[in-house]
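Lecture notes, unit on binding sites. The following record was shown on slide 14. It pairs a sequence with D-xylitol-5-phosphate.
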Amino acid sequence: MPSAKISPSLLSSDFAQLSSEANRMIKEGADWLHMDVMDGHFVPNLTIGAPVIKALRQHTDAFLDCHLMVSNPEKWVDDFAKAGASLYNFHIEATDKPLELIERIRKSGMKVGIAIKPKTSIDLIYPFADKIDLCLVMTVEPGFGGQKFMHDCMPKVKALRERFPELDIEVDGGLALDTIEEAAKAGANVIVAGTSIFKADNPKEVILTFRNIVNS
Ligand code: DX5
Ligand code: ZN
């Protein structure tokens, strides 16, 4: 399995200090920065869009892992590419033309990810898994930070890992010191965490522990 990448979710940061929060996470050892984009339609919450990614890009060269919890993900590809997003993670539930979307994202120069909600069958991912850089298996219902990790999503991670040993498999939602082992054992190697990193007394230690457990 590919090596660990730890991607703190800036949803749990102080949005008023976004650039210093982002750079603080990189200093604490984060590999990527997870940016949660919500449109108030695909999910019942509203966050940030491409202008914020563009602004943040002026202050960091970090890998920006953008999680698009939006309807019509086709609509924002060019804006995110221009803004400096590194990875465009769209939801499989939000499009009927995943292949076309994958190609468009590739052409724009960003890496391609497909995200999947807890209740959606992993079978929907298989036809595309060799055409993408990453699959994001949600371990909570998307929309909010601070929710409880859903253990019943692990069989999806396991099944995907068995079929695609080299794929980056990302988990998002409720990842913490008491759930990381289960996720890593199932085959996840990209770990998103908001609450457990930002609320920690020592975020560096949490990031390091996540990395060691995934790589062990
Ligand atoms: C939820 C978001 C997550 C969220 C995770 O819809 O996709 O990235 O920030 O937060 P925690 O780690 O607190 O569950
Ligand atoms: Zn997310």
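Take-home: Residues 9, 11-12, 34, 36, 67, 140, 142-147, 172-175, 192-196 surround D-xylitol-5-phosphate (ligand 1) (CB under 6 Å).
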